[in-house]
Design brief:
The protein is mainly α. Helix content is 56%, strand content 11%. It is globular.
């Protein structure tokens, strides 16, 4: 049986691998289309309809709404830490949650 640390690292590795094989670096809406930056040429854009849909589908399925309850608990716990602790008392997990939240908030 894997330890909790091993499970966390496995999930992190899987997310990283899925992200690495998904199209582009950043997905965003432009008008009625979903677009992405192109990894090969900085700043280039392409429509998601012109990409590796199999890799993107694996990413979408992995980050489905089913993971939302766990992510919400993590973000709420980190918010509690940020509210009751001094900045020098905040651990890396709460800092990572804040970075994650900022990415989500910036993409909305």
């Amino acid at each position: 049986m894997a330890s909790p640390a091993d499970e966390l690292r496995q999930a992190a590795d899987m997310l990283r691998d899925l992200s690495d094989t998904a199209t582009g670096k950043q997905w965003y809406r432009q008008g009625g289309e979903i677009r992405t930056t192109n990894r090969e040429s900085a700043g280039a854009q392409q429509r998601l309809g012109e990409v590796d849909l199999a890799a993107d589908a694996r990413w979408i399925v992995t980050m489905s709404p089913a993971v939302t309850p766990v992510l919400v608990l993590w973000l709420q716990a980190a918010a509690d830490i940020h509210e009751r602790c001094r900045p020098d008392e905040i651990d890396r997990t709460a800092t990572a949650a804040l970075d994650f939240a900022r990415q989500i908030n910036g993409a909305a």
